[in-house]
Amino acid sequence: GSSKAKVILVLPAIGGKNGGNPVPHRSTRTITLYFYNKDDDPTDPATTPTAVKTGQVSLDTSVGSLTYGSFVNNPATGIDLTNLTGTYKVLVKTGSYLRKQFIPKNGDSSATFTFTAGQATSLPQMTLIAGDIYPPASSATSDPGDNTLDISDYNLLVRQCYGNKSGCPSQTAADLNDDGNVNGIDYNILIRSFKVLSDQGSQGGDGE
């Protein structure tokens, strides 16, 4: 059988917990998983992943569930990785969010996860960082962003999209809490993301 991954993602301001939007327009998201060898540095642009897999996660709306308010894969099946086996560092990306590495609670960025045929491997729950919306997606099937949060993302949201401006190249991407409007809520989410990155000492994705 295929190897599988079990994923739990928290998207800030979406999902019903801590004041997040409980009824987002897009309750299912496509995610991309990147697998790197244990000695690779995923933050190095010259390093290419060993494998790239896509799958879907959906919002858990069951109040009282352990994953309520998070985006999870089908718990019965996991995300199908087909014939991928071995031990890897794993990162995840979805539209409008920075790519981020799965790191256990002990903060070990060198941590790896082992995938075995016919088994599902659980990855640590992770909160993604919102706001990676520039440049706009090049097609209907691609994601916005360049895995960096900077003034270009700010200008796209504030100058081009805020208040549902008609010239906004992608209201869906800029609508960070997915309520159908680009407004002060989305602005505050973006500012919080800059603060998170400032505390981490970086502006790019991939890190803890």
Features:
208 residues; alpha+beta; 8-stranded mixed β-sheet; 3-stranded mixed β-sheet; 3 helices; 15% helix
Describe this structure in words.
This protein has helices at 151-161, 171-174, 184-200; strands at residues 4-6, 8-10, 28-36, 51-59, 71-72, 79-80, 86-93, 96-97, 100-101, 113-115, 120-122, 126-127, 130-132. With 208 residues, the protein is of the alpha+beta class. The strands form 3 sheets. Strands 2, 3, 4, 5, 7, 9, 10 and 12 form an 8-stranded mixed β-sheet that branches. The longest helix has 17 residues, at 184-200. The radius of gyration is 17 Å and the shape is globular. The model has no long low-confidence stretch (mean pLDDT 94).
Order of helices and strands: EEEEEEEEEEEEEHHH
Residue windows where pLDDT falls under 50 for at least 5 positions: none
Number of separate helices: 3
Global outline: globular
What is the overall pLDDT average? 94
Query: Structural class of the secondary elements?
Result: alpha+beta
Instruction: Let me know the number of strands.
Output: 13
